[in-house]
């Protein structure tokens, strides 16, 4: 895996660094949180983050579809 070059200049307040990598934008905040956005955000996050640190709430991660049928 190649090194990712993070930009640390001209960032919004509260943000430490930002980088673009494989069609995704990675934002790192002063709070310690990391946000992945873009077309390949899920793939990049899975490549870079440890397996156990998934912090996506179940309600946001899964979608349920209600189906009804008549007999």
From TrEMBL:
<dbReference type="InterPro" id="IPR012295">
    <property type="entry name" value="TBP_dom_sf"/>
</dbReference>
<dbReference type="InterPro" id="IPR024568">
    <property type="entry name" value="RNase_HIII_N"/>
</dbReference>
<feature type="region of interest" description="Disordered">
    <location>
        <begin position="48"/>
        <end position="71"/>
    </location>
</feature>
<feature type="domain" description="Ribonuclease HIII N-terminal">
    <location>
        <begin position="5"/>
        <end position="59"/>
    </location>
</feature>
<dbReference type="Pfam" id="PF11858">
    <property type="entry name" value="DUF3378"/>
</dbReference>
<feature type="compositionally biased region" description="Low complexity">
    <location>
        <begin position="52"/>
        <end position="71"/>
    </location>
</feature>
<protein>
    <submittedName>
        <fullName>Ribonuclease HIII</fullName>
    </submittedName>
</protein>
